[in-house]
Amino acid sequence: MTIIAKWFISALSLLGADYLIEGISIDSFYIALVVAFFLGLLNAIIRPILVILTLPVTVLTLGLFIFVINGAIFWFLSTFIQDFRVDGLLAGIGGAVVVSVFSWIGNRFIVEDRSHNIIHHG
Fold it and tell me: Under a CB-based contact definition with an 8 Å cutoff, are residues 65 and 73 in contact?
């Protein structure tokens, strides 16, 4: 159940980025859900590969290049999801930052039930 809640929080975070960042446009909550799904997928699969490949640049910039990677992934999504528009890398970086901050705040309110993993000895 928590994965669905986190997915909805990501979608709401995307709508927040649409509201706050000039150059980002999401036409509906449904599109925000689609973008949130693919953003999570790319962040889980492609982002670690990009981080490893760009590690020297990331070290030289004291970690700031991670913002560029996140923005590029955000921008890349807009190239193949209709009704989601990001006008360039700077808007992508801003959108990625807003989504990260809003998602972090929203996910702090989710309490995960891990009681099913606990073995009680009686």
Answer: no
Residues 98, 43, 116: CA angle, nearest 5 degrees: 100
pLDDT over 60 (residue 41): yes
Side-chain half-sphere exposure of 80, counting CA atoms within 13 A: 6
Answer yes or no: are the C-beta atoms of 84 and 78 closer than 8 Å.
yes
Task: Give residues with Cβ within 8 angstroms of 64, minimum separation 6.
Answer: 58
Secondary structure element (H or E) that encloses residue 23, with its range: none
Q: Does residue 119 surpass a pLDDT of 80?
A: no
Which residue spans within the chain are E strands per DSSP? Answer: 24-26, 84-86
Residue ranges per domain, the chain?
Answer: 2-107
Residue-level pLDDT at 60: 96
* C-beta atoms surrounding 116 within 10 Å: 5
Query: Which pTM was predicted?
Result: 0.85
Number of H helices, E strands in the chain: 5, 2
Return phi, psi of residue 85, to 5°.
-125, 130
